[in-house]
Amino acid sequence: MSYWTYMTYMVLPPHGGYRKLLSYQLATIAFDFGLEFANKYIGTRSRTHDQIVQALRSGKQNIVEASMASGTSKKTELKLLGVARASLEEALADAEDFLRQHGLVLWPKEDPRILEIRKLGYKSDKSYKTYMTYMDNSESAANCLLCVIHQTNFLLDRQIQAVEKEFLESGGLSERLYKARQNVR
Length: 185
Known about the structure:
- The chain is mainly α.
- It is built from 7 helices and no strands.
- The chain has one domain.
- This is Four helix bundle protein.
């Protein structure tokens, strides 16, 4: 590796790679499953349909943007991860509203059905199709969506903590630029 390639690597660390992030993978599943749920049980003419789909999409897309911004700005990365988290929280509230407004049961986190859904999150080859058995009725579909969103939020919370820790330990781009400039002198 040449000196300049090395210095560029030190100043702008590798970034992107969002497809490998578990938070992105689960956010994608939440978006795909949520779209299917909204189409089947809410209906495409409803404003709630658009809101939940857009919130899920925003959650997924902001993880992408955060990953791409990570090389140049930890501040921007943290902000976008926060937006992703807030968007998913909005979708969570919409799914809870759906259950309440339709007189359906919100399954508690220790419910055996929720525990089964949570286990699916550990499969390495999962996609939204992995969860499709829960699409049979609106109550199980909404509860499955809630579970996947909760798992995604948990991963996002951990990701945000890791980025904060990295920033505190390594600093941001300005600090890396200064160090690289000092090394060149």
